Amino acid sequence: MCGIVGYIGDRECTPILIEGLRRLEYRGYDSAGVAVLEPDSAGTLATRVVRCRGKLGNLEKLLRDSPPTGRVGMGHTRWATHGRPSDENAHPHKHGSVSVVHNGIIENYLALRASLSARGHKFTSETDTEIIAHLVDDELKAGGGLREAVRRALAQVQGAYAIVVLSDAAPGSIIAAKNASPLVLGVGEGENFVASDVPAILAHTRQMMFLEEGEIAELTRGGIAICDLAGKAIQRIPRTIQWSSVMAEKAGYKHFMLKEIHEQDRAVTDTLRGRVSIEKADALLDGIELAPSEMKKLTLIACGTSWHAALVGKFLIEQIARIPVEVDLASEYRYRDPIIGPGDLLLAISQSGETADTLAAVKEARGKGATVMCIANVVDSSIPRACHHALYTHAGPEIGVASTKAFTTQLAALVLLAIHLGRRSGALDEARAATLIREFMAIPQKMADVFGHSPQIQVIARRYGKARDFLFLGRGNNYPIALEGALKLKEISYIHAEGYAAGEMKHGPIALIDEHMPVVVVCPKGPGYEKVMSNLAEVKARDGKIIAIATRGDSDIGAIADEVILIPDAPAPLLPLLTVLPLQLLAYHIADFKGTDIDQPRNLAKSVTVE
Ligand code: G6P
Questions:
Q1: pLDDT at 572
Q2: Of the residues 355, 401, 584, 597, which should be mutated to test ligand 1's pocket, given the most ligand atoms within 8 Å of the CB?
Q3: CA 145 – CA 143 distance, rounded (Å)
Q4: Nearest 5°: phi and psi at 65?
Q5: Percent of the residues in the chain that have a pLDDT greater than 90, as a whole number
Q6: Is residue 254 part of a domain?
Q7: Which residues have C-beta within 8 Å of that of residue 200, sequence separation ≥ 6?
Q8: Which of 2, 227, 387, 523 is catalytic?
Q9: Ligand 1 centroid distance, CA of 311 (Å)
Q10: DSSP 8-state assignment for residue 26
Q11: According to DSSP H, which parts of 239-328 are helical?
């Protein structure tokens, strides 16, 4: 999510850091900063931190008159998770002699902050990252050197992190450590580099080593030593990275959309991180406490793909929490003089947090006295700022205009919300909640499993990619997934596609079916399966071509469908997190086959800030 770059060598590092950050700006851009070990007139090194809110350009302006001089340093572009974008929350965070940049989420940061506060520590930001600077500084004072201090500090930390640490009390090295967030080490001649992503350092070296989970690296001018969290040395041989700089930005994928599709298991893991507990059989919403007994009405509003998430949300909340939910398009809702007021909860869903219609609907509901909450991806964007509560998805920046990882993380946030409400409405008992949470935590692994079908989907895309129209069918909570599959195909391949509730097919779309019409049907085993099978018989009787998304182990579907893409099984409320993936890949491969501009489709915008 955030971008990191670090350098130790004999060159002036500020230009290297800024150039590296420029290459990472697509990862995060709400604030930026550098920390450099700068010699004073006597040659003593002191850390100089320069950081500010806003894009990298703001930092460059700050640095223009007196850039830090020094040969050891690190930089960061931030994508906010804990704490809004501000000068104080910008990285690096410094405490005592220790400075830290961080990408990731520290799950136990509230507990760590409380115990540090009890020991007299004072904090100057709202971030989880600052905690690490305090922990390392304490450990460094206890002796053993910087690497050892980082190792001991990390033993107290739970969560995802890629960190780089430097200290003017230990100026001969910089320390990098990773758990669940990426870090790459660049090997140079008399200089070494670290970065969150390859593009940041590709101009300087192609010899790179990727840090693995739970590893710590000590970079000096002369070399890089890696060890695990127990301190055991690890040998790693550098690889030569062949990527061009354009390929490197997309992590080797052909398009940002494909990269983002493949990031979804990681993104959903980040949405869940620290928010579910099997022991407590509960979902925690970052301190937001909702009381269904006091909630008169619950309305979900959104636009585009986020509206499809809202439609799934209705199923989730009604099934799991047994609370009635209304769903509306924000663009319709705001002009209808909606009936809403005190005691009602309006939940807006928005990736960007900037969609004009959604923002206007939020203001309308708030103006009428309702409680307003949002599920958003961009921290402190306009919609979260206009709401009483915000639950962030932590998907990281989404560059492809067609939304993918934002959608599945919205689904994950809605499952969290449904569990939270279900436990408080009494509809979800402890045992069922614990089972559902356990299955929920297994979903990222199952998502990764679905990506293994990409070559098969590529073949299907070539076979049907010349069709003029597509029909997408689904039932229950897979009906919105059919809508989303059709939208993805329309957006990026420009093929006309319609999503329909399978039971509605006989009321119209059936007239379109002939041997040229591919019908994509989302039919995992579960509620409504037999009904969808009957709908498929109707398609087959009219020579339609059936592409089925079915559950592994389904021995009947092959007899009726022309193509079958098998996904792992999961409880019905969680299936949309899996069934949407083949549809994203199908749209992607058809568009790629047609050669359209996948990341920036014609006429579309990532964020629609006009009515
Ligand atoms: C635009 C984007 C869609 C997105 C919709 C709503 O149309 O192209 O991908 O779903 O806006 O955006 P939001 O940021 O509010 O989720």
A1: 95
A2: 355
A3: 6
A4: -75, -40
A5: 81
A6: no
A7: 3, 4, 5, 20, 21, 23, 24, 193
A8: 2
A9: 15
A10: G
A11: 245-249, 256-262, 264-272, 304-316
Give the nearest ligand 1 atom to 491 CA.
8
Q: Give the per-residue pLDDT at 181.
A: 83
Specify the pLDDT at position 375: 98
Q: Determine the pLDDT at residue 142.
A: 94
Dist. CA 498–CA 509, nearest whole Å: 9
Residue 606 annotated among the catalytic residues of the structure? yes
Pocket test for ligand 1, best of 257, 329, 350, 351 (most atoms within 8 A of CB): 351
CA of 349 to the centre of ligand 1 (A): 10
Residue list, ligand 1 pocket, CB within 6 Å:
303-306, 350-352, 355, 358, 401, 403, 604, 606-608
| Spatial CB neighbours of 151, under 8 Å, sequence gap ≥ 6 | 177, 216, 227, 229, 231
pLDDT for the residue numbered 28: 63
Highest mean pLDDT among 188-192, 333-337, 355-359: 188-192
DSSP string, 304-341: HHHHHHHHHHHHHIIIII---EEEEEHHHHTTS-----
Expressed in angstroms and rounded, the spacing between residue 169 Cα and the centre of ligand 1 is 48
pLDDT at 251: 85
User: How far does residue 355's CA lie from ligand 1's centre (Å)?
Assistant: 7
Whether residues 27 and 161 share a domain: the answer is yes
Mean confidence (pLDDT) of the chain: 94
The pLDDT tens digits for 100-149 are 999 988 989 999 999 999 999 999 999 999 999 999 999 999 999 999 99
Which ligand 1 atom lies nearest to the CA of residue 403? 9
Using the 3D structure, point to which of 446, 477, 493 is the last residue of a domain: 446
What's the 304 CA to ligand 1 centre distance in angstroms?
5
Give mean pLDDT, residues 289-314: 96
pLDDT at residue 576 greater than cutoff 90 = yes
Q: Print the domain residue range for 573.
A: 452-594
Nearest CA to ligand 1 atom 15: 350
Q: If you take atom 8 of ligand 1, which residue's CA is the nearest one?
A: 606
Whole-prediction pTM: 0.83
Select from 63, 3, 7, 2 the least CA-distant residue to 203: 7
Predicted local distance difference test score (pLDDT) of residue 27: 67
Residue with tokens 């006091």: 294
| Integer CA distances (angstroms), 38 to 42, 48, 584, in order | 11, 6, 49
- Total domains in the chain come to 3
Based on the domain organization, do 486 and 419 belong to the same domain? no
- 196 plus 47 within the same structural domain: yes
Q: Of the residues 303, 392, 599, 609, which should be mutated to test ligand 1's pocket, given the most ligand atoms within 8 Å of the CB?
A: 303
- The answer to the question of residue 405 being in a domain is yes
Both 58 and 191 in one domain: the answer is yes
pLDDT for residue 602:
84
486: domain CATH number?
A: 3.40.50.10490
Reported as a single tens digit per residue, the pLDDT across 548-573 is 999 999 999 999 999 999 999 999 99
Q: Which pLDDT does position 611 carry in this prediction? A: 64
CA of 487 to the centre of ligand 1 (A): 11
Is 363 among the domain residues? yes
**Whether residues 203 and 307 fall in one domain:** no
Q: Is 52 considered catalytic here?
A: no
- 297, 368, 531, 606: which one is catalytic? 606
CA distance 260 to 403: 9
